[in-house]
Amino acid sequence: xxxxxxxxxxxxxxxxxxxxxxxxxxxxxxxxxxxxxxxxxxxxxxxxxxxxxxxxxxxxxxxxxxxxxxxxxxxxxxxxxxxxxxxxxxxxxxxxxxxxxxxxxxxxxxxxxxxxxxxxxxxxxxxxxxxxxxxxxxxxxxxxxxxxxxxxxxxxxxxxxxxxxxxxxxxxxxxxxxxxxxxxxxxxxxxxxxxxxxxxxxxxxxxxxxxxxxxxxxxxxxxxxxxxxxxxxxxxxxxxxxxxxxxxxxxxxxxxxxxxxxxxxxxxxxxxxxxxxxxxxxxxxxxxxxxxxxxxxxxxxxxxxxxxxxxxxxxxxxxxxxxxxxxxxxxxxxxxxxxxxxxxxxxxxxxxxxxxxxxxxxxxxxxxxxxxxxxxxxxxxxxxxxxxxxxxxxxxxxxxxxxxxxxxxxxxxxxxxxxxxxxxxxxxxxxxxxxxxxxxxxxxxxxxxxxxxxxxxxxxxxxxxxxxxxxxxxxxxxxxxxxxxxxxxxxxxxxxxxxxxxxxxxxxxxxxxxxxxxxxxxxxxxxxxxxxxxxxxxxxxxxxxxxxxxxxxxxxxxxxxxxxxxxxxxxxxxxxxxxxxxxxxxxxxxxxxxxxxxxxxxxxxxxxxxxxxxxxxxxxxxxxxxxxxxxxxxxxxxxxxxxxxxxxxxxxxxxxxxxx
Length: 660
Ligand code: GAL
Hints:
- The protein has 660 residues and is an alpha/beta fold.
- Among the domains are: 406-601, Rossmann fold; 613-658, Golgi alpha-mannosidase II (Immunoglobulin-like), CATH 2.60.40.
- Helices cover 31% and strands 19% of the residues.
- The chain has 18 helices and 25 strands.
- Strands 9, 10, 11, 12, 13, 14, 15, 16, 17, 18 and 19 form an eleven-stranded mixed β-sheet that branches.
- The longest helix is centred in the N-terminal third of the chain and has 29 residues, at 205-233.
- The protein is globular and about 80 Å long.
- The mean pLDDT is 97.
- The site of beta-D-galactopyranose has 11 residues, from loops.
């Protein structure tokens, strides 16, 4: 458990650097991330590097006893490079190149940019690869930010054709897989295939899905090039990338495979404002963020990181980029920091050391105000630093890995597929995955968020949010896991080519769950369908279905239990052995009560904690977070077991106690 900060020496007079470094150290910071946007200062003119200022900055930090996280500066190609190679600019769906003047103005498929990136990464890695102060690396910055994964440039289309050829080998195979006979869309060779854009009505969905898969692979290829350069020049120093919160535009599992540390950038208030949450939820958690949002991301990135994951950027105060930018309540920066550690983080690094008085982010807070006084976030970070020492001394195991008994499957292609082929306009995959996660968290469970291809050993319950395309061995691995399996609607509903399976959904999962989804319907946001659990009349056991209904037949009724039905009598929740199928997305309360019931069957013990208090376990410690506006009292824990706080947890505060 360590603290870090993002620092931009190039934004400040050199006369400030030593004092900055001294104050960082005094505050309890150990790691400083630098240089991710500094290309124009590192290489002010083509081929002429100016290392002098960066050498001095690294030395100042190192001499103060700080470790440097060195970044490659490829998120911001300088003006001269763009002028020399305009083909670096990504092309939008409107066919126009996006312009220079902000950041991330590059196309992952541009051969000139690949080459330029190779050069600058090699230069930086050669220069600092073995520097004593440089302990970690970050590739680029936030791949895909500002909608930059997909480009429709000629370079991208050329590479897409190669990608298709590798995937399908022959044009006949592609035509069959996509079903291009429909509307006379058949191709005679790969060179005839363009990007799926600017068509009269919707472009072919399989074509679109493959374009997304291709664009995602381009990100992985680009990152891999950088990682290989860094490893060659800086052996033994872990390489990270800073992913974004709830970002789904490329397959993060594939990119993370090449990294040592998956890190992410946590802005809980900006996220609450920008995501799907209902107005009353936005109002309720306005200055705290949603209690499950940061932790969902922690668990996503923990699941793909080889070393403990990090928060590379932690919101320190108001941000600048959401539609509205409230200030966190006092206590929240500390709470968010502890929440990250409770979920297994190795480092929490604040963005940024000092608020910049100029340019796009001048309204974005830092740990210090622009006139260099410590801000609330800075004081709270200092408090966390002191508390870390205390926690580490209380439990030798405090840095232990975190493992839940429940796994939630999380998938990137599912997001693209439902976006391309929604069938109901608000079928939003990350939202549904988040809602399942949130229901499990409100039952007090620790949850591992993992890929459908990850091992399933050790789980008592595996929850699968709508997963249209399942890996070929998914059914066999689920069966072998011995866990209780919960499948959300639309699971197994498509083949990898985006066709309806020959045996109808759940397709390849029919061996696990002998049902047949013979009809589906989507439901408008203002429409719900009642759901009644069999055998009970009490209101507790009733709820409603939203968004979607699968209408199912049981192939073999003798081996089946129908536990809940829709108002018109169709099965809503069925069970076959240890496999449970939800034929719709239920309201939050019903989802939670079904998960509680299934967890109990799986020998787990739910401990409901409401919508504003959360508990997490790491090592021998339990961490309790109070997102509510009133005090929370922890029952049944002796006062002598508290390491931080007491049984009475104030609003926006944290308590930590020994579990044994
Ligand atoms: C992140 C980005 C940072 C900064 C920050 C502001 O997305 O990596 O460079 O822009 O947001 O909140």
